[in-house]
Design a protein that fits this description.
Elements: E1 2-7, E2 10-16, H1 20-25, E3 33-39, H2 40-54, E4 58-64, H3 73-83, E5 92-98, H4 100-112, E6 117-123, H5 126-132, E7 136-142, E8 145-151, E9 156-159, H6 161-164, H7 171-185, H8 187-196, H9 200-205, H10 212-228, H11 231-238, H12 248-267, H13 273-283, H14 295-308, E10 312-317, E11 320-325, H15 329-347
Parallel strand pairs: 2-9, 3-4, 3-5, 5-6, 6-9
Antiparallel strand pairs: 1-2, 7-8, 10-11
Helix pairs in contact: 5-7, 5-10, 7-8, 7-10, 7-12, 11-12, 11-14, 12-15, 14-15
């Protein structure tokens, strides 16, 4: 299946529902030099297969770490040194194959380099697919500090669900991407997810591939808001003492959860938060923060960050973005108290 994703004056062709090999057989590739940027884990597993798919072209590899935020400044500088080996006279095909950090780094290099380049992205997860069509590609100083930004302009995105389905460890992260879509842009979609995936066992047993086209549609409709929601709350976790106890993925999860809880409280939405959080817990999300993680310090960083940023997105109702508003300290206190009460309920205290 194919879709065309529009942003500003840029069009990106997205191929999904077929294997990478079958899609590649149909492609005509002009550049004779191919540079594939990937994470170490995907190089180890797929380098021979991908090299064969691009033959008889010359294939070179640039290997990044496995970190979610491998689109950092030191990796960017090292990659640009690597690209400096190639002739400015010869066109290149840049292929970003891997997690969201690799895709962002590939796109940023494509926009920055003086070389003549085309850009293809091959995301290995639903979350990475969502990132492949975002408006901008960034290089970060730290995960919570964007440093440089360029337009994200891939010509072609190939999503092979057979590769994505093998990423068992990342399935919760992919599912959170779908939950986010439902919460912000489609309440009926959220209800469908709740019915279809009532537990961790159901989530692990069933594929998420059927939701690929809905993800693309909702990102076309509300992509920038979907990317923004929860990000400020996630960034605050990087600034909190003992924030290192949370992985990057956990910071994203709690960023989403606290932003959602805040808007439910602040807008007095009709949402059964205990039922919602119990569902997340049954799915396997880490609802409970480590004891040494200070919520009061964390929320003080949320307030501090918001004073430097634009006002925060809020929901008019589940599935509908209402606009923007300022965070009040009293609302954050209420959010913290609500979270602590919910944790006690889930524990059975």
């Amino acid at each position: 299946m194919e879709a065309v994703f529009f942003r500003n004056e840029q069009e990106t062709q997205i191929s999904y529902g077929e294997t990478l090999a079958s899609v590649m057989r149909e492609q005509s590739i002009e550049p004779q030099q191919v540079i594939i940027l990937t994470n170490q884990r995907y190089y180890d597993r797929f380098s021979e297969k991908l090299t064969r798919l691009f033959l008889p072209r010359e294939v070179n590899w640039y290997i990044c770490t496995n970190q979610m935020y491998c689109n950092n400044f030191s990796e960017f500088k090292a990659a640009m040194d690597f690209f400096g080996r190639f002739s400015k006279q010869e066109p290149l095909l840049i292929v970003g194959f891997g997690n969201e950090g690799v895709l962002a780094l590939s796109s940023f290099i494509h926009a920055t380099s003086v070389l003549t380049t085309q850009l293809w992205l091959i995301p290995v997860s639903l979350r990475a697919l969502a990132k492949s069509v975002k408006e901008t590609a960034i290089v970060v100083k730290k995960p919570d500090i964007p440093m440089l930004e360029n337009p994200n302009t891939p010509e072609f995105v190939i999503y092979d669900q057979t590769i994505a389905e093998k990423q068992i460890d990342g399935k919760l992260v992919d599912f959170l991407t779908l939950i986010r879509c439902g919460v912000l842009a489609d309440s009926e979609f959220l209800k469908e997810l709740h019915r279809t995936y009532p537990s961790h066992q159901a989530l692990m047993r069933h594929s998420l591939a059927a939701y690929t086209d809905r993800l693309i549609q909702l990102y076309q409709q509300s992509g920038s808001e979907l990317e923004e929601f929860g990000q400020l709350f996630a960034d605050a976790a990087y600034r909190t003492e003992n924030g290192h106890l949370l992985s990057d993925a956990m910071k994203l999860f709690f960023g989403f959860l606290f932003h959602f809880m805040w808007t439910v409280q602040q807008q007095q939405l009709t949402v059964d938060l205990p039922v919602f959080c119990q569902w997340l817990a049954r799915l396997g999300f880490p609802i409970e923060l480590p004891e040494s993680f200070s919520l009061s310090e964390y929320f003080s960083h949320v307030l501090e960050l918001q004073q430097k940023e634009k006002k925060l997105l809020f929901l008019a109702k589940v599935g509908t973005i209402g606009g923007r508003t300022k965070i009040e300290e009293k609302d954050l206190v209420q959010t913290m108290e609500t979270y602590q009460r919910l944790i006690n309920e889930i524990r059975g205290v």
